[in-house]
Amino acid sequence: MSEKKILKSCRTFYINPKEVNKKKATRKVVILADSKGKYIEREITTEHCLNIKFIVKSGWTVQKCIDWVEKNLTTTFHVNETYTFYIWLGTCDITNLDRSTRLISLDSDSNRNIRYIIRKFQELKEAITSRIIRSDIVFLEVPSISIQHWNYKKGILNTRTIKSKTRTLSIN
User: Fold this and answer.
1) What span, in angstroms and rounded, lies between the C-alpha atoms of 150 and 88?
2) Domain of life here (predicted)?
3) Residue 29: helix, strand or coil by DSSP?
4) What is the pTM of this model?
5) pLDDT tens-digit profile of 32-55?
6) Maximum average pLDDT range among 4-18, 25-39, 93-107
7) How far is 16 from 1, CA to CA, in rounded Å?
8) H-only helix segments in the chain
């Protein structure tokens, strides 16, 4: 889905709080994300009736999230509740940020990193489900366009090499 379509659907999306308040949600929603989640949080938290819990940290790798889950999950959430965890991580594991230019580029060994991320996602799922038994895990895809979009928004217009690396990553 293109960014234009997403923005259009966000403008036409309306939630009737009175209707939502009449219904009781059986699951609580938690979104674990790196800095990408901040942008969604800003838009969605205006709808207080949705009651979505965001745990968003800039530069969050999958391993840092696992460490957070092992340390904080049972103190942050009730063990007897039913949750759906949406996990939107992985960008920081396959990219490098040049702090001086703010340019994001794909890591040179993306294939090794992808195998690493898959293994870490399995560990993360196990860490969550072992602590909160009644939980579902949904992994959200990291769009390849987000790296190009970030660089463009930061004023880095020559992204030809990044596009070719992104294409290679998409094929693999």
Assistant:
1) 16
2) Eukaryota
3) strand
4) 0.72
5) 999 888 888 887 765 666 778 899
6) 25-39
7) 25
8) 3-12, 17-22, 36-44, 62-76, 91-94, 110-131, 145-153, 160-171
DSSP code per residue over 43-87:
HHTT-GGG-EEEEE-TT--HHHHHHHHHHHHHHHS-TTS-EEEEE
Give the strand order in the sheet containing 135-139. Answer: 52-56, 28-33, 83-88, 135-139
Residue 148 lies in a domain: no
Find the CATH number of the domain harbouring 134.
Answer: 3.40.50
Closest CA relative to residue 77, chosen from 32, 126, 138: 32
Please, what is the angle between helix 110-131 and helix 62-76, to 10°?
A: 10
- Write out the residue range of the structural domain in which residue 8 sits: 3-142
The two three-digit tokens of residue 1, written as one number: 């889905």
d(CA 79, CA 83): 9
Residue with tokens 């990219």: 95
Backbone angles phi, psi at 98, to 5 degrees: -85, 110
Q: State how many domains the chain has.
A: 1
